[in-house]
Design brief:
Structural class: mainly alpha
Radius of gyration: 18 Å
Distance between the termini: 44 Å
Shape: globular
Oligomer: single chain
Order of helices and strands: HHHHHHHHHHH
Strand content: under 5%
Length: 234
């Protein structure tokens, strides 16, 4: 690791350390939910390591419990993770030039919190090694925190009181991430559209309303980004 990589890693870790605190309740809730769905410890941690996405895990668990068709479970996981297509597109240029292994690793550890916290600096910093360290260090740290807290949730599923309201804490953590991202007009429009559709379509069977809301929000965000780019050209 070059000196610039280490310098970027130190700065990225410092900036994103508060974000990792918000991961803990969300991971605990996910671990509890998987055990509640009937998963063994090995199954729960296997899903956590392979999927590594709270929304995909929590979104598919009710379908798995209900015995929904496999295609619907897979489609739900893909739809709720579509936001990472936008995230990856935004990070493609700042993280370009690395090895194939580095790009795969960057994609695997991509999370909402690190993306929202580091994107602006990644776009402005000229040193590619510094950018890589700035992104990877907090990403790997958050992945470690996530897996550790998920394991705690799985193992402690029978002893954590329900009145701790960990679900509410996780929602607050997501709102904290959403606010800085909503400063951009396309992001704000995507959030408003997705939220509105989720409320209006909440009565659809098999949680298809959530899928429709996600697709609608992403479409609105892409449309706003395209319109904004055309205005800038003019």
């Amino acid at each position: 690791m070059s000196p610039s990589f280490r310098a970027g890693a130190r700065e990225g870790f410092r900036v994103c350390l508060p974000v990792s605190v918000g991961i803990v309740p969300w991971a605990l809730v996910t671990g509890l939910a998987m055990v509640g769905a009937g998963f063994s410890t090995a199954q729960a941690m296997g899903m956590s390591l392979i999927v590594f996405g709270a929304t995909a895990q929590l979104g598919t668990l009710p379908l798995i419990v209900a015995g929904a068709p496999l295609w619907l479970i897979v489609a739900t996981a893909l739809v709720v993770n579509l936001r990472f297509v936008i995230f990856s597109a935004a990070l493609a240029r700042p993280l370009a030039g690395g090895t194939l292994a580095q790009r795969w690793l960057c994609g695997y550890v991509l999370t909402d919190g690190v993306f929202a916290t580091t994107l602006e600096r990644l776009r402005s910093e000229p040193d590619p090694q510094w950018r890589l360290g700035y992104y990877l260090a907090p990403s790997l740290w958050c992945a470690l925190v996530w897996q550790s807290a998920t394991l705690v949730g799985v193992l402690a599923a029978g002893s954590i009181p329900r009145n701790w309201s960990l679900e509410f804490m996780a929602s607050i953590a997501l709102i904290v991430l959403l606010v800085p991202m909503a400063k951009l007009r396309p992001m704000l429009l995507a959030a408003a559209t997705g939220g509105t559709l989720a409320v209006l379509l909440r009565g659809m069977p098999l949680r298809l309303g959530v899928m429709a809301a996600i697709v609608g929000g992403i479409a609105a965000g892409f449309a706003a980004e395209h319109w904004q780019a055309r205005r800038a050209v003019r």
